[in-house]
Amino acid sequence: MMGIRRQRHVLLLSALVPLVAACGSSLKSKAPAVTPKQTAVQTRADAVPATPVAPAAIEDPVLTLIATSDRHFKAGQRELEQGHVEAAKQEFNRAVDVLLESPYGARTEPRIREHFDRLVDRISAYEVRALATGDGFTEKKYEPATIDELLALSTTIGTPSATPELKDAVQSDLQNANHDIPIPLNQRVLSYIELFQGRLHEFIEEGMRRGSKYLPMIQNVFRAEGLPLDLAYVPLVESAFKPNALSRAKAKGVWQFMTGTAAENGLHRDWYIDERSDPEKATVAAAKYLHTLSNIFDGDWHLALASYNGGPGRLQRAMKVARADDFWKLAEKPKVLPRETREYVPMILAAIVIARNPAQYGFDFQPESPHTYETVTLPRPVDLRRVAEWADAPVDEIQALNPELRRWTTPVKSTNYELKVPVGTAGIVQARLADAPPIDLASLKYYTVKRGDTLLLIARKLHVSKGDLAEANDLPVTTRVTAGQKLIVPAEATVLMAANADRPVPATEARKTVAEAGQLAQASETSNLVRVSYEVKRGDTLASIARVYRTSIASLKTWNPRLASGQLTAGQHLTVYVAN
After folding, report:
1. Which of 166, 243, 263, 542 is the most exposed place for a label (fewest CB within 10 A)?
2. Contacts of 226 by beta carbon, 8 Å cutoff, 6+ apart
3. Annotated catalytic, 418?
4. Alpha-carbon distance 291 to 278, whole Å?
5. Which of 238, 275, 343, 492 is catalytic?
């Protein structure tokens, strides 16, 4: 769980002054009777003294903090009941963060510690339930691909007939534009130009604005590969230049690669990453694939574009059946090519015409600057929320810089993953990475295989799919697991991440001498430690407790000799040493 730590101050409510209290009570009673004015001061011993006004109670800041945390938790419950998983997650995260960010931390003050532990348990229960219903926080969200929307819209509203004025304007534009792929001035292309600059004006303009930050990179790649630069605008129709675009057919990324085609052209995909969503890597793959299609169809870019949409095999079969090698003749035969492919090529050509000269067709937008970033080589998996904290940047920014990452963590088995970070932060992230213990870097959950377990049985226990469990551990789904084997649980450890960032317990709690630490290796290493007692809760494991207190399982067993078997029971008390 991420949250950039900022100093918070608990605000105390001002005490109500007696005048306000008096005014408030007078509204509930009749007007008092008027009594004669007294001029003498009472001095008798039996005189009744005036009733003192009790001072307004000062609100307990700890209770205020707990109430604030509880409000966020209840808000998360309401969001979850309405099916708003992301909003619920944010509220749950905030319920924990307000405790972590307070001057007390989450474990310093006994009442806060009790609330924190109960809060973690309750949120964990919701996470398990969400996973069981398929709403787990396991993969980032994707956006609908533009090609699906364009085809649906063109079916609904139809393509208008181009006016003679538009035809003359386009003809003049084509004479001066020097396109590097042929643009026929036919009714199919003209009708899409009119549709794009009319009914779909905002749709296309938003795509061009977003694409402006990728165009220099795409054109550089295509120029180096000797490809027509006009092809750089293909993503305007495919995805509107959205790295996280996902079509109904499961094509993904700016260039809308299917899984098999992506792999054939050098893009890697596993449970942790999908390089189809990386604009730079996908552009290199697209250049390679377009080269291949151009060679298959002898440099005919209309046929190559049709095959980019429908597949080269389907187009070759269509050419054989129709006995034609011209796309426009094939497009006249509805039974030969599917509608999507017949509409795809004129859509692309119309988009190229407009994108090469947007002002000519009534488009006006401010281009976006290309992404700038630095890179950090990660020797081990790291939670993106940790990186965001170190870089003092929103986690959304880290994800936007690294769109190929499907999860909340970098690949678990990678020892040299190149992570993009905001400009000026690489040195800071590198330094924090070097100082942080490995257990503090990645919020991962593990399951130890028991005798008789299978992948299917374990998946059911953990409320995850068998495929996700196998893929997260880089295993075939047919793998036979063995007792003692450790498997990564494909679920985001949201609450654990927050607990991991908790503050240490102060010296005022359960301080003992170094000698009482028992079998610790070096007295000098424990001279700044504080002994605390931890009550085991249902669902706890040695690994989860070790992460919370930033220690190791071996240390827990050293401090608690009865843990040799590693078995825990709810209510059991463990001795833990934490930094003072």
Report:
1. 263
2. none
3. no
4. 20
5. 238
